[in-house]
Fold this protein.
Amino acid sequence: MSGSFTFIDFSVFGLCLLAMLAGGVWGGRTRQTSDGFLLANRTMRSWPLGLSLAVGSAAAIYYCAVPMESYTAGLKLLLVPMMLWVTLPIVFWCVVPLCFGLELESVYEYLELRFDLPTRTAASGLFFLWQLPWLAGVLALPCAVLFPGAGLNAATLTILLAGGGITTLYTYLGGIRAAVRTDVLQLALMVAGLLLVIVAVWSSLESPARIWEVADRLDRNTIVNTSWDWSARWSIWAALPCMVLLPLFFYVADQATVQRLLAAADDHQMKRSLITGYVLLSLLVPMLIYAGLGLLAVYHDNARDEFRPNWIVNSAVDGETGRSLIGLNTVIDAETLPELLARKAILAPNTDRPMTDSGEIIDARGRINIDRLATRELTGERRLRRGGGELFSRFVRRHVPMGLAGVVLAGLVAAAMAVVDSGIGSLATLFAVDFHRRLGWAERWLAERRSKRPDDLDQADEFHLIRPLVLVIGVAIIGLSLVVVQLGNVLGLLIALLNVFAGPLLAVFLLGMFTRRATGPAVLTALVLGTLAAAWLTLGCFASDCSLWPWKTHLGVFWPLPLSVAGTATLGYGLSFVLGQRKDFAELTGLVAGLGPWGILVETEPDQVQETEGIRWIEDEPDNKENRRESPWR
C-alpha cells in the first residue's frame, strides 16, 4: 500500500467537497429574511434536524479523537453514549418547553427574562469570545489527525482553505437550511469513511475476533475505573459527571446546538429530532471505539512490520514525584526483575498496562527478551508513546485502498464542517439578536445602507446585515485555523476551551432553571469568577509544572468541567443572599422549575397572585398568548 495520500485520494476528496457545496446550495434555495436565514422560519422537520444534531456540537471531537483515545482507554469510552441518555429528561421536559414556549431565537434571551440584561449580554459575549478559537480548532483537527506534526504544509493549507471556504459559502448562501441539509450528506460521508476503516482493519487481521482477543489481553475491555487518582484520565469519579455535564451543556447553553431545536416546526418535532440525534450518536460512538480497538489489534499483531524498536523501557512514574519507578542506572536482569514487576514499574510496550508476569519478559531459555521491553516507534516517523493521530493517519495511508482513502479523508473533514457551519450560524444569530436588536449594534450602519430610518428596519433588512457577517466570521475562523494548526496539540486546545467556558455557562442556566433565589448580579459575578477558576483548573491539567499550579501532580482532563459547574453554581447561589434582589413568584413563573408550565409567561398584577399551600399560582389562562410577557427586544 502507498505510504501517503495520492492525487486520486485528493481528487475524491475534492468531489466530496463539491457534493457538499451543491447540497448546501440546493437545500438553502429560497427567498430569505433574517428569520428564514437563521431559523428556517421554524418550519424544519425532525429527521434532518436529528441528523444535524448528531453531527453538530462535539461530533468532530468524537469522530477524530475517539478512535485514538480508545486505543489506550478501550471500552471506557462507552460512558459517552451511556451518559448521554441521562441528560434526555432535562432536555425533553425543561429545554424544549422553554425554547418553544418563549419562542427564543438566542438561547441567551432566557437569561434576561430570568435574571437581567447584563447577565444575558455577558453570557452571550463570552460564548462569542470562545467560539471563534473553538471553531478554528475544530476546522484544524482533521489536519492534526491526518498530518500529525506537519504544521502548515501544502496539504493542511488546502484542506483548511477548501473545507472552511466551502462551509462558509454554503452557509452564506442558504443559512441554517443549507447547513442542516448538508449535515445529512456529511453524516453519510462520516459513516462511509468509518466503515472503510473497519473493513480495512478486518482485512489486516486473521479474523475480526482478534480485536476482542487483543482488547482483553491488554485490559481494554473494562468500562469502569474506580481508582481515586486526581491525575487519572478515566477515573469514574471525574469521567462520569463530565460525560453527563458535557452533553447537557451542548443541549442547554450552546447556541449552535440549541439553534437546531429552535428551527423545528413545533415542540413535537423538537423532541423527535432529539431522539433521532441521541440514537445516531449512540450508534456512532461505539463504532468509533471499535475502530480504535481494531487499530490496536493491527499494531499489536504487526509491530515488527509497522514499528521499529526504540530501546527505552516504557516505565511507570511515581504519582507524587513524577519520577520514573526504574532508576537511571538500574540494570534489568533476573535479580532486579521480580522487584520491578512487583512495584509495577514496567509497562507493556506502547501501552499503560503494568507488566506483572515474568513470563511476558523471560523467554524459554531463561533470558530477558529485550523485544518485549522495548518501546516501539513508527518507522521513519517521530516517536510514539500512547497511540495518537499518527497511528490513524498511517493506517489509512497504508491499508485503505487508493481512492477510498479520499473518502476517509472527506469523512474527517465533513465532521469538522458540520460543526463549523453550526457555529457560524450561531455567532451570526447572537450578533443579530443579542447585540443588534437588543443593543442597537450596527443599526445606524444598516439603516444608511438600506436608506431607512432605524425604527423602520425589518427582517428583510436584517438579512443584509447577517449575510456579510457570515462571511466575516467564516474568514476569521479560517484565518485562526491557520494559526491553530501550527500549535501542535489541537485536541488539547479544544479540550482546554471546553473546560474553561462550558462549565460556568452551564451553571448559570442551571441556577436560572432550578433555583428561585439566584439573582442577576450574583450570577454574573459567579460567571466571571467561575470562568477564571476554570481556567486555573485547566492550567493544572496541561501545565502542572507552572508556578500558578502549586501541586506536582497534574489534574485529569475531566475534572475542570464538573468542578467549575459545582463551584460556579454554589458561588452564584451563595452570593444571591447578598447581591441583587430576588424576583417575585409572578416574575419567575414559567421560567423556573415548579412555578407554572415551562415557557408560559403572563402579565400579572399583585392581586392576581394567590398563595395555596406555600405555592403561589397565577390566575390566568396559561395558553392565552395575548397575555404572555413579551420578549424584551427593541
User: Anything to note?
Assistant: Residues 584-627 form one domain. Residues 74 and 220 are 4 Å apart (CA to CA). The chain has 24 helices and four strands. Strands lie at 307-313, 374-378, 609-612, 615-618.
